[in-house]
Amino acid sequence: MSTVNSAGDAGLDPRVKAVFDDIRATRGTDFINNFWRYLAFDPALLESTWAEVNRVMATPSGLDPLTKEMIYIAVSVANGCGYCVHSHTGAARAKGMTAAQHAELLTIVGLAAKTNHLVTALQVPVDAVFDQDAAPRS
Amino acid sequence: MSTVNSAGDAGLDPRVKAVFDDIRATRGTDFINNFWRYLAFDPALLESTWAEVNRVMATPSGLDPLTKEMIYIAVSVANGCGYCVHSHTGAARAKGMTAAQHAELLTIVGLAAKTNHLVTALQVPVDAVFDQDAAPRS
Amino acid sequence: MSTVNSAGDAGLDPRVKAVFDDIRATRGTDFINNFWRYLAFDPALLESTWAEVNRVMATPSGLDPLTKEMIYIAVSVANGCGYCVHSHTGAARAKGMTAAQHAELLTIVGLAAKTNHLVTALQVPVDAVFDQDAAPRS
Amino acid sequence: MSTVNSAGDAGLDPRVKAVFDDIRATRGTDFINNFWRYLAFDPALLESTWAEVNRVMATPSGLDPLTKEMIYIAVSVANGCGYCVHSHTGAARAKGMTAAQHAELLTIVGLAAKTNHLVTALQVPVDAVFDQDAAPRS
Amino acid sequence: MSTVNSAGDAGLDPRVKAVFDDIRATRGTDFINNFWRYLAFDPALLESTWAEVNRVMATPSGLDPLTKEMIYIAVSVANGCGYCVHSHTGAARAKGMTAAQHAELLTIVGLAAKTNHLVTALQVPVDAVFDQDAAPRS
Amino acid sequence: MSTVNSAGDAGLDPRVKAVFDDIRATRGTDFINNFWRYLAFDPALLESTWAEVNRVMATPSGLDPLTKEMIYIAVSVANGCGYCVHSHTGAARAKGMTAAQHAELLTIVGLAAKTNHLVTALQVPVDAVFDQDAAPRS
After folding, report:
1. Which of B1, B2, B3 to mutate to test the interface with D (most CBs of D within 10 A)?
2. What is the DSSP string of D20-41?
3. CATH topology for D62-123?
4. Is D56 in contact with D71 (CB distance < 8 Å)?
5. Phi-psi region for residue F45, left (φ > 0), alpha (ψ -120 to 50) or beta?
6. How many C-beta atoms surround the C-beta of residue E124 within 10 A?
7. CATH superfamily entry for domain B11-59
């Protein structure tokens, strides 16, 4: 149950079709998950989101692909986005996440949530040593 | 400004002193950051939290220490915990996080937040392919 | 699947029946959506909530009805309330929200979420110019 | 640093003055905390909020006053509202919360945050037994 | 639909079986709810979580069991964890929560959410009187 | 107190200088608020964020500029981002938001937060009528 119609494969807006074609080519599979099919209700939002996801997540960089996916999962869990947790857990597995790494990711996420709440409840003041503006610039 | 008193170094409860001594020995520094000084208002909570943080974050495991810290930062940002963002950004730097990796971490966190909100706004249904219970068990 | 029973139309508590009658008269339809049927488990909470929603959302004021609904959707998305996103997207459409306005609303919500997370990750200090208490009072 | 001006004690709007007088009489103290002074930027919002807080928190009911304050703290921590954590921790102490009860409250809040995040990460399906709509009505 | 497989009752890892046996013995029922069945994907996480829940929630302490469950519900609502709201509402009922107490709990949760958002929107500065570090130590 | 250094006006990276020049030209003021000065720690993130903010918020579209700012404030409040609330409340005032409109915005935000939490606590099922996928496509 959703708030907009999803796009099928027929009768697509040319801009939507171009993005779908690029998703298929980039991923090497015909399957397009629901996020893109629903985002297609607005071609401009679909285009800009796909371009950003592709640039951030698929461009070789200083973080390896699996680490990126685990960071994505962590944010999605903390923001309570079920779909996002599902899709990025799937992506992390496809990039080699083992069951042990998954368990460790969740253990850290749970611990961070606990200490986040304790800090908020205690209203702990930030130690001066953590202030980067006070640090000597390199 | 906080909701409980912080503990100094004098006149400590023996259980608090034991944790502070262990923090200093484990980290090889005399400095104890505010989280532990405020958590000391309850020796049992201090003990159990330090034990858990130590076990999860400092035990060699399938994720390297820097990856763990970046996951911790990601959760803390999404949960809006300023102190936690400060302290774990400091910890990640101490474990070798470069400015480029920090920038990439934040880029992923910002992108994930955006797509999390889009998914929630669209109420995208989960694709059947992401259901692990439906997957063949190994 | 819910945590309380929903109210049907028969055998209602008189206070619940009075609110249901008022909802039907105000909206000019016999349909009563689930929020009110479940909130009916406590007549006092039903009465006070309906009175507040009616006063805030239906009283002519300095913001037009569609703008109000879009603000409501924005909060509901950020709070991760799926039901609320569904019901207020429906209400916004009934008040004239076009597909283009819906897309623009979501684009802003997604952008705000991204910059919210970046600000939290950077712990940006508030500029003095934004302090209203420091502004001259009119 | 705030987004609106706070109200002092001189030259007040009569509706604001009436609420301030009622706060002082109800609480038996001349002190008015900042929440009310800033909310005074809109007399209608000040009136309705004070009326609601008074009705919910100060009317004798099936939950004792201290339990109510601890629930309020729990929500405020989870929503990350520092001011609210401060003011309601103060209120809970004024109603008799001991240091041990405070520590236990925080221990539960931290544990709930941890399991909340684990459940979201696992996307645990709700057990049928928890469905109240399926339960026999009394 | 979940991100990991759930554990049935056959062919269990001995550590998982030991926890399941302890859950059954502690609760006096053969039923094991899904949280534990899914958490079983990692025996270490299952063991530590069950031990923590048991210690915090089931050990006699300065807060009565029902108050603890209502605090747990409050956090789960604010964190938007549907499963947690279901399971702890069930637990609270089992510990004697009446419909009137449930309604009052929700009334407080809703009010706290409202004032939390107002405080954040106004950016109310914390009153000096709430600073515990400035208070005389006992 | 922040997690990265802020950029002054001297010795800037050319890409940072170009964005700062564009911000000044676009807004017709020499003032650059802290968000951009801190985001400057990563020129690529600064460029892409400024481009997106400019495109979404400053391009004439189907929503008027003040409505856009109020939606931005609503998301920022619900996400608990103090800096964002300050800066976008300032921006909304600059675009003509009156005190009455500000009060009404906050009234809606507070009400939405309350009903969001009630819906989550009740776990209200979505009415079939809100399912857009079931609606006839235009």
Report:
1. B3
2. HHHHHHHHTSS---HHHHHHTT
3. AhpD-like (1.20.1290)
4. no
5. alpha
6. 26
7. AhpD-like (1.20.1290.10)
The number of residues in chain A equals: 138
Does this chain's domain A9-59 share its CATH topology with A62-124?
Answer: yes
- What tokens does F73 get? 């404030």
Q: What CATH topology corresponds to A62-124?
A: AhpD-like (1.20.1290)
- Residues B61-121: name the CATH superfamily: AhpD-like (1.20.1290.10)
Distance CA A75, CA A94 (A): 19
Q: Which residues in chain F are closer than 8 Å to C82, comparing Cβ atoms?
A: 126
D34-71 pLDDT per residue, tens: 999 999 999 999 999 999 999 999 999 999 999 999 99
Specify the fold of E10-59: AhpD-like (1.20.1290)
The three-class DSSP label of residue A79 is: coil
F59 Cβ contact list (under 8 Å, min separation 6): none
Check if B58 contacts D (Cβ < 8 Å): no
F127·C57 Cβ contact <8 A: no
d(CA D92, CA D102): 9
Of F57, F60, F82, F72, residue with least CA distance to F105: F72
Which amino acid belongs to residue B131? D
Half-sphere exposure of C124 (CA within 13 A, CB side): 27
Give the DSSP letter of residue A62.
Answer: S
CATH 1.20.1290.10 fits C62-122, yes or no: yes
Domain A9-59 has CATH 3.10.350.10: no
| CB proximity under 8 Å: F 60-79 to D | none
Tokens coding A82: 């079920």
pLDDT digit of tens for each residue in chain C (138 aa)? Answer: 899 999 999 999 999 999 999 999 999 999 999 999 999 999 999 999 999 999 999 999 999 999 999 999 999 999 999 999 999 999 999 999 999 999 999 999 999 999 999 999 999 999 999 988 776 554
Please check whether residue C120 is in contact with residue F81, taking contact to mean a CB–CB distance below 8 angstroms. Answer: yes
| Cα D23 to Cα D35: distance, rounded to the nearest angstrom | 12
CA max distance for chain C: 60
For E38-69, write each residue's pLDDT tens digit. 999 999 999 999 999 999 999 999 999 999 99
- The residue extents of the domains of chain F are 10-59, 62-123
Tokens of D1: 């640093």
Q: What is the DSSP letter of B31?
A: -
**What is the interface pTM, i.e. ipTM, of the complex?**
0.95
Asked if C109 and C77 touch (Cβ cutoff 8 Å), the reply is yes
Contact map slice: C 15-54 vs F, CB within 8 A = 31, 33-35, 38-39, 41, 45, 49, 52-53
Measured CA distances, B96 to B64, B67, B89, B91 (Å) = 11, 10, 11, 9
Please give the Cα distance from E119 to D83 (Å, whole number): 7
Evaluate whether A71 touches B73 at the Cβ level (below 8 Å). no
For residue D86, give the chain A residue with the closest CA: A123
Among candidates A85, A103, A117 on the partner chain, residue whose Cβ is nearest the Cβ of E45: A103
